[in-house]
Amino acid sequence: MILCRVLGNVVATQKQPAYHGHKMLIVQPVDEEGNDKGESFLSFDSVQAGAGDVVLVEQEGNCARQILGTKEDPFHSVICGVVDKVNT
Amino acid sequence: MKLAKVIGTVVATIKDPGIQGLKILMIQPLDEKYKPVGGPIAAMDTVQAGPQEIVYYTLAKESTLALPNPFAPVDAAITGIVDEVHLEDNGIVNKDAIFSKEVT
Amino acid sequence: MQLGKIVGTVVASRKDEKLEGLRLQLVKYVDTDGKPTGSFVVAADSVGAGVGEVVLVACGSSARMTQATDNKPVDAVIMAIVDVLEIDGDMKYVK
User: pTM (2 decimals)?
Assistant: First the structure.
């Protein structure tokens, strides 16, 4: 898992049938102090996260499919938690 | 998954039987503000994307799950056409509370 | 597997239910000299490691192979606490 902040959401009408009903957010990886690091990417939401939230993002297909509840759909990345606090 | 723009098509007559009949597009990966990031890549099209359209694509093994043949030798597939990207980039809400050094 | 040093913990109350009960640690990857390589990961802890300890982190599907993470949606796990690291006869790290 990595820490990311949510930048916004992405709307698509024409997409893989498996993606219907899932919210897609655009996230920016951050470091342990909350500063941007690396390139933004897209991730599916499973915890009702919104813009400005710091979230935990999984980047592994099997994890994403477990959380989103399908066995053979093309999910790779999923937001699995909203971070309350990072203790360093 | 990442955003990208369709910049061209690839035609290949001789190819692995696992990818026969599939359209191959050249795409340029983009960041959230549609600025190009890195070099273009070739990706399988699963959503009938057209030239210059903004799409998103998935990488790695998961990309083959979008294809008719999940064992195809493919590592990138276009899985959706983007209508809109809503950015509300006002930074992290409660950044000080989340990343403060104090242990609570 | 990669060497890392635990630099903190992550608290998330709103999360997938399968992640309940797992301790999430913030791990900075380090090289064999203990210098940070610049990247970090949030890993589930399966061995009870604490802040400051040098640990081994397994990523990808292997992360689900420990008892603590069995069949859970986890992509990185701390699966060992390093006691001694020896490179070419050199003691690089002793706990």
Answer: 0.84
